[in-house]
Amino acid sequence: MTxxxxxxxxxxxxxxxxxxxxIVNVRGWWSENIEGGTSRVGEKFRYxxxxxxxxxxxxxxxxxxxxxxxxVLDNYFSFTRDSSEWKGTEIIFEIARKGDQxxxxxxxxxxxxxxxxxxxxxxxxxxxxxGSLRDLIASGSGRPNVGEAITQSEQLLTxxxxx
Length: 163
Known about the structure:
Protein name: ATPase
Number of domains: 1
CATH topology: Alpha-D-Glucose-1,6-Bisphosphate, Chain A, domain 4
Mean pLDDT: 91
CATH superfamily: START domain
Largest sheet: 7 strands, antiparallel
Order of helices and strands: EHHEEEEEEHH
Structural class: alpha+beta
Family: Belongs to the AHA1 family.
Number of helices: 4
Low-confidence stretches: none
Radius of gyration: 15 Å
Distance between the termini: 46 Å
Strand content: 25-35%
Domain Activator of Hsp90 ATPase homologue 1/2-like C-terminal: 25-136
Strand order of the largest sheet: 1-7-6-5-4-3-2
InterPro entries: ASHA1/2-like_C, START-like_dom_sf
């Protein structure tokens, strides 16, 4: 059986150490509204965006310059029938040297097309991973969410509905 979990990857000219440092700097590429620790195994952090999405994540594995694994402990979506769709899934970053470049492979294990949130979540991950995280690694400056809708999906989910 083929795993249908969301995955994406990109390469940068920077070292695996620079990529690893950027990944664990979650506030630098995903959201400035992260509460808790993100750089030690066992630490837990919380992400929230308006009343649209909240989750609690635990850092499960850190292999410097090679791998980061998070486990979603709790999740809430305002826009799905099952608000806990991410609960129990794993978010994996794998870092590898490919010639003179570094490849970052991202997998949200368990985020599958059957999920109601899949379109919005895959759109979000694409923007945050191949856009903001890549920028943070390459230039030292990411584009984290600072309370404003960044992706098209976020904009649609936070747009007031017509009465």
